[in-house]
Amino acid sequence: MTTPKLLLGIILLAVGVTAQAQDSAAATPWWKAPGSLAADDAKWRAEDDKQKDNADAFAASLAQSIKTGKGMGYLDQGGVSPSWYKPPMLVEPFPGSYSPELYELAYNVFLKTGQLKEAYRLAYTAVVQVPGNVLWRQRLIQVGTWLEQRETVLQQWQWMAQRDLPGARAAAVKLAAALSRPDIVIQLLSPVARAGQLSDADWKTLIYAYGQLSEPDKAIADINQSLQHTGPKRFLLEQKAYLSYQRGEIAQSLAALQGVEKHFQATPDIAIQEARLLSMQGKYAEAFAAMDHVRSKASLNDVPFWHLLAVLAWEVHDHEAAYDAEKKLYLLGAASQYDLQRLIMLVGSKNPEAALAVAQRGWKIYQFPYFYFESLTYAGQAHEWKTLGQLLQSVPAHDPQDLRSYATYWLAMGQWANAVENYPAAEWAYAEALRLNPEDEIAKNNLLWMLVDSGNVHALRALLAGDVLQPPESLRNVTQNALERLGHNTTALFLARQNLPSLKPNSLRLLNEASLWESAGSPGIAWSLRQNVIADSLSSLQKNHWQGVTPHE
Q: Where is the signal peptide (predicted)?
């Protein structure tokens, strides 16, 4: 019975390992899936498109209004009237004194026989003779609406609104707004607003009316008066912040936003406004703190939030927060050119493969040379030789962006050719890099290493014909290796002895020196150096052993 159980265990173990391998293979690294979050949460895209459509529609409507005069103060059009405008009727009141019974009978007859102009004249006469009669004002509104006598209708609604008749203020405000009469809108709504009794919708109408007259200061005065009656109100504080910003009063606008944050729940949209104002004052740390405070409340829909958070986090050197924001934007497919640049710099030192993918995406979308050269750099660092070769060969023959005029291109070409052991191509590429920039020590270093690796003694001897005892610090190591390749062990030993003299020599350096001494004909010195390395190694092992032993052992 033991054998079947053992066999079953092995089978189950194999199946588990296979499943785990399949799961790990199926998992796609984040940098290979740009736009993946947008597939799960594309609501922000629809909202963004809708906002753009609304903005376009508003712009078109505004242009049409300017062209036709519709929606503007049509009584002062310079002789140009909109198509819907009907000039006021010239009315001659009926003679004689007002008689309730006679006027009632005549009005009904005029309506039944379709004589609307006579009905309008009669109602107008009644209002003139009996100004306090609400019924006749209502009838004048009715027939005036049919005849499109908007100014007369507005006057009647305004009269009734001033006397607080039900529904009159709303009707008067609506008509005054349609006729672009901000003075009347303000006259009707400002007293109610100052008393703290105005709805948010009417506040919007009132603020817009002040805007038409370029009087945001008066709107702020109404808001302040209302806040004294009602206490803090989120909507009014937000409007005060907006109006103060319009007036260039950054401190007042910021104070209003901070009032929202103090008395109500902080939200990403308020944090964005607050951070922008703080940034205008150069207070980037405070701006970032305002954003970071509500970061957990921001959803994937809040794309503007992540854009601004990324910029501020980068500004204050909080690279963890910057990475979090930039990665979200990348995975949403909403990263700008600058977002991709920052993301490359954030991941490049730790994950060249990710930096390569981001750089390639930037090159594909924006065709900006920065992304091309970053792609070359990180393809080399990630040892993605196939990708590097494809990038190098993707430059068309006519090279419209003049990419081959940069030494970086030829350095990448040399790196790729050296990796695939095409040493003649590598030598030519490094030579081109040095032709473009003769002082490029990276090109010199890479060229020497390539010649060392390929065993091209003839070229090494030609390059090292000058003074090799005082090479630049960046070329000291490769020069030493080149001298060893040429058999100049004494000169190589001289360089090795001068390399970083202020630091304590490590085991690897001592072993290298021992090899050089032996090659230079001094096996005794080589033996002594190796003995020192052995002694140091034994001492380290014993020290580590006793550190791992507990007292009771």
A: 1-21
Using alpha carbons only, what angle is made at residue 314 by residues 308 and 318, rounded to the nearest 5 degrees? 110
In 297-440, where do the E strands start and end? none
CA dist., res. 533 & res. 529, Å (int)? 6
225: closest CA among 200, 174, 190?
190
| Angle, CA 20 vertex, CA 19 and CA 24 arms, to 5° | 120
The DSSP output letter for 475 is G
Closest CA to 369 of 406, 331, 422: 406
Mean pLDDT score of the chain: 78
Task: Give the pLDDT score at 509.
Answer: 62
- With DSSP H G I counted as helix, E B as strand and the rest as coil, what are the percentages for the chain, rounded to 5? 75, 0, 25
Contact (CB, 8 A) for 418 and 447: no
Residue type present at position 103: Y
**Which residue spans within 19-71 are E strands per DSSP?**
none
SS3 64: helix
| Per-residue exposure over 119-135, b if at least 16 CB sit within 10 Å of its own CB, e if not | bbbbbbbbbebeeeeee
The alpha carbon of residue 3 and the mean position of all alpha carbons in its chain are separated, in whole angstroms, by 63
Cβ(175)–Cβ(153) below 8 Å: yes
Q: How far apart are CA 509 and CA 499, in angstroms?
A: 10
Please work out, in degrees rounded to the nearest 5, the angle formed at the alpha carbon of residue 320 by the alpha carbons of 314 and 321. 65
Q: Which residues contact 411 (CB under 8 A, 6 or more apart)?
A: 429, 430, 433, 440, 442, 443, 446
3-state secondary structure 131-142: CCCHHHHHHHHH
Provide CB contacts within 8 A for 369, sequence distance 6+.
Answer: 401, 403, 406
Would you say residue 72 has pLDDT above 50?
A: no
Question: What's at 376, amino acid-wise?
Answer: L
CA distances from 316 to 286, 346, 349, 440, 548 (A): 10, 14, 19, 33, 43
Alpha carbons 356 and 381: distance in angstroms, whole number: 9
Lowest mean pLDDT among 23-32, 38-47, 402-411, 527-536: 527-536
What integer pLDDT is reported at residue 8 of this predicted model?
A: 39
Rounded Cα gap, residues 356 and 10, in angstroms:
41
Is the pLDDT confidence value at 469 over 90?
A: no
Give dist(CA 378, CA 359) in Å, integer.
Answer: 8
What confidence tier does 489 reach under pLDDT thresholds 50, 70, 90? low
Report the C-alpha gap between 6 and 364 in whole angstroms: 55
CB-count exposure of residue 158 (10 Å: 0-12, 13-18, 19+): buried
Residue 47: which H helix or E strand, with range?
helix 43-68
Please write down the HEC assignment for all residues of 210-268.
HHHCCCHHHHHHHHHHHHHHHCCCHHHHHHHHHHHHHCCCHHHHHHHHHHHHHHCCCCH
The H-or-E segment that residue 411 falls in is helix 407-419
